Amino acid sequence: METSIPAAVIAAILMVSAVVLGRSGYQAFDGMGQVWKEMEARAGDQARTQLTITSVTHSPPNSPYVNVNLRNDGSTNLANYDRMDVVVQYTTGTGARVLVWVPYTSSPLTDNTWTVQGILGDAFEPGILNPTETLQMRIQLNPIVGNGTTNRLLIATDLGVTVSTTFTG
To answer: Which of 6, 29, 57, 128 is deepest in the core (most CB within 10 A)?
Structure first.
């Protein structure tokens, strides 16, 4: 009798420990499953996202502006412009090489920012870049792009899809 009470307490502690460990193991596997589902959804969105830069112009010459047309050829809508990365590598009029990350702004342009000028064919969901529509971007760079120089532009979405091209200043 004197050993049955400690044995019962030890058995109860073991049972509670097994339940606690089992439950935390289940929660860990459930959390991993949720992350896996999110990863699959993101990979699907990446696979359905396709962008094409249809034109890049430095206009007018000797101005700080670079105009870009970005067509959505995929089946994913794009609306988070503030999460898009724009990187420009260019040569100035003095021959200096510049590499700059250009953030989005919804206010008037300032040096080394970009904004949406409009969306061509924006009949459905105004302000959102739907499939077959073209985003008209304007980038303001300082120092300005040199005339006759060959430069590079890269655009990356928040999904990790990138597109790049070269353009002449």
So the answer is: 128
Q: Are residues 121 and 158 in the same domain?
A: yes
Helix, coil or strand: residue 61: coil
- pTM for the model stands at 0.75
Question: Can you point out the beta strands (E) in 5-144?
Answer: 51-58, 65-72, 85-91, 97-102, 113-120, 134-140
CB atoms within 10 A of CB 8: 10
| Same-domain check for residues 68 and 83 | yes
How many folded domains does the chain comprise? 2
Residue 23 has pLDDT above 90, yes or no: no
Coil vs helix vs strand at 143: coil
Instruction: Say how many residues make up the chain.
Output: 169
CA distances from 118 to 51, 81, 103, 129, 150 (A): 16, 12, 17, 10, 26
Q: Sheet containing 65-72: which strands, arranged edge to edge?
A: 51-58, 65-72, 134-140, 113-120
DSSP for residue 64? S
Dump pLDDT digits (tens) for 106-141: 999 999 999 999 999 888 889 999 999 999 999 999
Specify whether the CB–CB gap between 147 and 133 falls below 8 A: no
